[in-house]
Specification:
It comes from Boletus reticuloceps. The structure is a single chain. The chain has 11 helices and 14 strands. The protein is of the alpha/beta class. It has 2 domains: 175 residues, Isopropylmalate Dehydrogenase (3-Layer(aba) Sandwich), CATH 3.40.718.10; 170 residues, 3-Layer(aba) Sandwich (Isopropylmalate Dehydrogenase). The longest helix has 17 residues. It is globular, with a radius of gyration of 20 Å.
Amino acid sequence: MAFSAPLRSMATVAGKSLKIGMIPADGIGREVLPGAKAAIQALGSSIPTTEFIDLQAGFECFQKTGTALPDETVEVLKNECDCALFGAVSSPSRKVFGYSSPIVALRKKMDLYANIRPVSSVAPIPNEQPTIDLVVVRENTECLGFSISKKKHRLLGKGAPKARATRLITEYASRRIGEMAFKIALTRPRKHVTIIHKSNVLSVTDGLFRETVRGVPTLPGMNGKYDGVTVAEQLVDSAVYRLFREPHIYDVMVAPNLYGDIISDAAAALVGSLGLVPSVNAGDSFVMGEPVHGSAPDIAGKDIANPLAAIRSAALMLRQLGYRNGAARIESAVDDVIREGRYLTPDLGGKSSTSEVVSQVVKRI
């Protein structure tokens, strides 16, 4: 279990219909998101009547309509939905005129400033402590490229072509993500935060991030709230090295956007597959579940994509909203399927289809 309590004032209301925006987007996103929906539906009356609202976004949406994130999708999320689930996006590695990533835009427009990515192994025996159990808390709104999303700097002259990216780190965003990391640490047994940075080289930007996060416990009004949380720091390159050598030293890792993305993907190797790692994009008034994996076009349409990360993301979303019992039932069912080992997709060495794995999780819920 990554954390045991909702982190914001998003309390559930008994009897209130829960409206969930469903954004499958591209590739295997369309195959794994139905599994997340089935897991939530399997909870039955333990959560309020649930309405799923299908919404559009993604590169294929851009190819069809000229926009990767329709205004209607954002308006429905803001005005009608309590939360959302996002599948995966096929953003091309080459420049495509007029296109920008819809998931990046969604995080900005909905102010989902924290990407929370728990990485845990499944213990051989239920209720035993997993050998890998950490949470990467990734800042979602700035870092490389975010400050110049519309205007690209391209330097021409001798030796052309050249390119330049601008990196933005602010005290405001660093403080918010730092507070989120400390809040999560309070819900975990070890209560330990590691600040990931590269301030020995990037002394201005990473230096500000490091000092701001370190200063969270001393902010006005904290009154010793985080006295029980221990703090360490690690340069990002050595953090990746130690992640593979000594993963047990980490509990909550907090990082700027780019570092957090790299670290969490690397950590997924410790538990067997990106297809197992969930996340939520969290703000102060909205939460959106999102599996960490990409759109995997090489396996799209073959019914072999691993749905467990999407299902776990649904559980994290419910946990953030305060539905802890429902979240725990889904998480337990996923763990049982992994532990049993009979119904696994090819990325985990199995031969089961996406739909077969979903069926087994739903059965156990």
